[in-house]
Design goal:
There is one protein chain. By secondary structure, the protein is α+β, with helices and mostly antiparallel strands. Helices cover 37% and strands 22% of the residues. It has two domains: 2-123, Creatine Amidinohydrolase, Chain A, domain 1 (3-Layer(aba) Sandwich), CATH 3.40.350; 128-340, Alpha-Beta Complex (Creatine Amidinohydrolase). It contains ten helices and 19 strands. Strands 4-3-2-1-5-6 form a six-stranded mixed β-sheet.
């Protein structure tokens, strides 16, 4: 079980005691259940999942290998955890006021220690089950991108494209979207996360579509940029620069490579094309239960890529008042290189 991996990883850092897990993504990682309040993982023995009355019967039916305990009305989950903890309590993440309340419950702040980095590192490397779920989520995302590409023409609205893409992902088996679907057109393609403006595609527009599907809690992430009509020379130049950067970064991805170097490989191509200052975000991020998780592919990153990590490769150029291009794939890191899990074509 993944709880065993946590105890083993903590022991390597000489952290012996119980773990209180409050972050919802972390709880789901261990239990394959969404809707619990907290999880207590002891150094030895059965872990306890604390659930309110709303989700208690569902948890009892769906959660295997954990003691499921009801939080009754008026009961404090912090007091319940404190009552089960005698040694040091390691905590993933909590708001400061809740941290203070937990410190009181366990008898002093010296009995608590934040250890979010252990959870971050543990979740960064996916096991085979996780990779299979992400691979399937990527297939669903490709179905959404295909539907979006078929809708792109002058007169169609951004919302119509998003609706068709999300419907296609649902038909392909998705449990929902991994994040709010982004469709941008024209000069709004210069905004990496799109716009809420009501926009209709015009002839010659860039159209950027960024979407992801969810499959059994696991996410995918893909972006493609299209052109509604015939590309101009400038549009072609920008698109090809991003495509080269995307490929150069992908070629750099492999186990043992510093994430920072992958980011630089993509940025350098764009910089040499004259658009370095218009690449305004990191090259990529990890994908898993959350669509943004470890590792981080950025200039400041200290992460080293490992086989089993799933990351994005998403360089972009964003020209204010003109538009922009981003190309993104979800990529599996392997011992010898990388595998693109999203398969949609790149032609604009």
């Amino acid at each position: 079980m993944r709880t065993g991996k946590l105890i083993e990883a903590a022991a390597q850092q000489e952290k012996n005691g119980s773990f209180a897990v409050f972050n919802q993504a972390n709880i789901t990682y261990f239990t394959n259940f969404s809707g619990a309040t907290a999880l207590l993982i002891p150094e030895a023995g059965e872990a306890t999942l604390y659930v309110s009355g709303t989700n208690y019967q569902q948890a009892k039916a769906e959660v295997k290998g954990f003691n499921v305990e009801l939080i009754k009305r008026g009961e404090s989950v912090l007091q319940k955890i404190a009552g089960q903890t005698k040694a040091k309590l390691y905590v993933d993440t909590l708001p400061i006021e809740t941290w203070r309340a937990l410190a009181v419950a366990v008898g002093g702040k010296e009995k608590l220690e934040p250890v979010f980095e252990i959870f971050r590192t543990l979740r960064a490397v996916k096991d085979q089950e996780e990779i299979s779920l992400i691979r399937e989520a990527c297939r669903m995302a490709d179905a959404g991108m295909k539907a979006a590409s078929e809708m792109i023409r002058p007169g169609v609205t951004q919302k119509e494209i998003a609706a068709e893409a999300e419907y296609a992902m649902r038909k392909a088996g998705s449990d929902g979207v991994a994040f709010e679907t982004i469709v941008s057109t024209g000069e709004c393609c210069a905004y990496p996360h799109g716009t809420n403006f009501e926009k209709t595609i015009s002839e010659g527009d860039f159209v950027t579509v960024d979407l992801g599907a969810k499959n059994m809690f696991y996410c995918s992430d893909i972006t493609r940029t299209f052109i509604a009509g015939k590309a101009t020379e400038k549009q072609t130049q920008i698109y090809e620069a991003v495509q080269r950067a995307h490929q150069r970064a992908f070629d750099k991805i492999a186990a043992g490579v510093a994430a920072q170097k992958v980011d630089y490989a993509g940025w350098r191509v764009i910089d040499k094309a004259g658009y370095g200052s218009y690449f305004v975000h990191n090259l990529g991020h990890g994908v898993g239960i959350e669509v943004h998780e470890a590792p981080v592919l950025s200039p400041e990153s200290k992460d080293i890529l490992q086989a089993g990590m799933v990351v994005t490769d998403e360089p972009g150029i964003y020209l204010p008042g003109y538009g922009g291009v981003r190309i993104e794939d979800t990529v599996l890191v392997t011992e010898t290189g990388a595998e693109k899990l999203t398969k949609s074509s790149y032609s604009p």
